[in-house]
Amino acid sequence: xxxxxxxxxxxxxxxxxxxxxxxxxxxxxxxxxxxxxxxxxxxxxxxxxxxxxxxxxxxxxxxxxxxxxxxxxxxxxxxxxxxxxxxxxxxxxxxxxxxxxxxxxxxxxxxxxxxxxxxxxxxxxxxxxxxxxxxxxxxxxxxxxxxxxxxxxxxxxxxxxxxxxxxxxxxxxxxxxxxxxxxxxxxxxxxxxxxxxxxxxxxxxxxxxxxxxxxxxxxxxxxxxxxxxxxxxxxxxxxxxxxxxxxxxxxxxxxxxxxxxxxxxxxxxxxxxxxxxxxxxxxxxxxxxxxxxxxxxxxxxxxxxxxxxxxxxxxxxxxxxxxxxxxxxxxxxxxxxxxxxxxxxxxxxxxxxxxxxxxxxxxxxxxxxxxxxxxxxxxxxxxxxxxxxxxxxxxxxxxxxxxxxxxxxxxx
Length: 412
What we know:
By secondary structure, the chain is α+β, with helices and mostly antiparallel strands. About 30% of the residues lie in helices and about 15% in strands. α5 packs antiparallel against α10, α7 packs antiparallel against α9 and α9 runs antiparallel to α10.
């Protein structure tokens, strides 16, 4: 599901401030900074580490979600009509549909609330595993910067997911589509803070959830450009106790995946921090993590291109998106670039935690007097060999197909 739409959908998994009747009847409210977080009381926070592991049985799906019949979703999408199609890709197709705000029953187009409905391809075995993983995570975790999963359908061979609708679509569309009006500096920084809050919440759980597929296409925007992380099909529990990492198959998206993870399969929360650093570079530069024109093989990555500028504070402004028209604080841009640099350190131990990254970004957004650019020891804080990780990636994953968008990597 992580790269579910080969062509970016104009609108996907959208937003509504409504309270759905499918929500758990009893919830614990947890305060984290200025964010209100909801965790189902049916699954205590302390037991998430076990309960979030995806089961092979469909009966493991969370009872906090609405179980839709396939006929309900056919009615909601007008039998999955082509004019309701939002996007399609490896997972399947995403359609817009309409349901009643209170009963969640299907309604006529234009009535009730709009939702985004993903339909899994019948032949997609990996898609089914990701479908079940997403249901298990988003069925229990509720946060204002995580996309809301309303319900699911598991009927016969049909597997579908029903999300809140995000009317502004993905961050990818707003950064890279020439036909879309560029978003302002202030909006970009607001999005960065929102994403950092979502990741900080995941990393702060007892289960230490690692998202594993952060990228611009998985960051969705509501009508007010509030950002939410979507597509939890690759998420998994992080290390516990004295363990420093979990070993797993290499899955993610080229250009965003942390180098040590690509090289070894060792995954920890700092892997998400690296991906966040790449997203910060995209927000700063307006450039993709990988050049879409060549499919992500021979061209240099965004990290490789930005490296000479990031290590020199006097040259760092050369990476800035020209579509911003210079409408940003130079000191703020230098500060964000320095934060991105720390996130992209080649040694995961030297990357900051997402909580620290969030604190720095919030300080930048709230301080009347612009904070000074952090003084970095470039010999310690720079990615030491930025070309090597991608070279390894190309060597070990020759089977990845060329397309116009960053590709999911999978060491199967």
